[in-house]
User: What shape does this take?
Amino acid sequence: MTAIAINRFHARYRLAPGTDGQRERLQRILAQVIDNGLEAAVQRRGIDTVGELCIREVNALAWLDLSESESALAAKLALAIADAIESGMGKQGLDLVHYGSRAHALIDLTVAAVGGDFTRSWAWRRLGVWNAESAVTTASAVRLVLRALTAEPRHAAAALAHLARNPLLFNRLLRHASPPQLLALARAVVGANACSADVLHPADEGFGMPIPLAAARRLAQRSAIAGATAASVRIASVEDSQRHALAVLAVCEVEPALLRAPGDCVRAFVHAVLEALDELAGLSPAAARDRSGPRAAFRDFRSESVVSSGPGRSASHVAPGMESAARQESRRPAEARPSSRSSNALAQSGVREPRPPEAAPGEHPLPEVRRRAHTRFGGLLYLIHLVNRLGLAERILLEPRLAERSPRWCLHQLATALVPVPASDPAALAFAGLLPDSEPPCNDQPPPSEFESAAIAELRGELLRALRDLLDRPDDPESVLIDFVCRRTAEIVADPGWMEARFSLDDVCTEIRAAGLDLDPGWVSWLGLVIKFVYA
Assistant: This one.
């Protein structure tokens, strides 16, 4: 659905003599256009409204014959405004920003604002995620960023993970983020994943659960947030409450389904992630034990060692000289450097806001986060509805035979067991909540054991039985049933935390539609994604 929000609107009329009373009539018609008619005109002009399109100013000119009916005048006014929007979209610059998704907008806000670039702050205000009217100090920028992410917790982990690709910027955020702010953010993220806030409580000694340190180490190595946190611990003091919140966010970044496990299991895993962070930060076991109370504040640990990162992961490191650079940055007065660039959202205004001075071209371009790929089995994603209905994500967490594997590994194995695709197929990756260019979860992992394969086969059989009952196809062979639902060419278009499966209009199927399989799944908490289906 296209939604248009207009911040301010200014209309000027030039009326011929003898047209008394027409101004009030035109005002009434214009109000109707703004309230009801503009969306239809935008769609009629074929303007791409996918994502979030922000336009700072639109100037529309319309010649009207006042003898025409009010409906005809309203149509002409709406089309004149739509034409002005369409012509403005070709002028990429400081007056137009187009974000592919809400997640893309939050990633841009996080990286640019922490980096001191407020060039696109007018667009953030249009989207309702920023309320500063001008450039602000670094501390204020961090506070506003955390407030925006707390208000949009579904995309918070993705935005922080993108920021963590720049360890210096991530360290800047940690230096200015208070523990209550990070805890509030983690609490909001935990709530968005429909799990208990108890995971934010420090684990008591001897709380009765085994510590899955090996699995936590793998997660920490894959997490950009964990790697950047470890790098920050080396060069600055990071309080334990901050680390605890960041450990929860790292789990949400890499394995969001784990947050849906029973409370004691989640707390044990977060505790293990904290231990893995100690190792990444170069803390000795003695130093890790030498903390008073409920994991008090961290000391300063400094190192020039490198945290390695595998393919598809974000490398976080403290290279020689970084420590001094970070210290110099902490002494430097906070500055707000306006930058260049353009990008996207949906709104327009008739009043121009003050434009910040242009920065050097390319200083802070809009983050490139979108990934695209094609698959022959896009219909596999229809089955996400059934996975959710059957509670398979929660069942995976409780299945003893799969205890050594991550939820994403299990979902990816289930996908490749359902359809004949390689591990890197975009549909199989998307079924596990991964972007098209992600590393398959099975890479660098031993093949499934006999017991693990049996557990995956049982989940597959249950899913197909539910699909057969839903479509009322009791006699179809498995291969026919799977091909009917899953063998559909699609383009997977994805940002971190957001994904679209785009199908041809020829793939619209009344049987699939009647079963509700191609309804938008929306926010899927155990995948950490908003998923949409589009026919075009």
In short: Strands lie at 5-6, 52-55, 96-99, 347-348, 371-375, 490-495, 498-503, 522-524, 529-535. The mean pLDDT is 80.
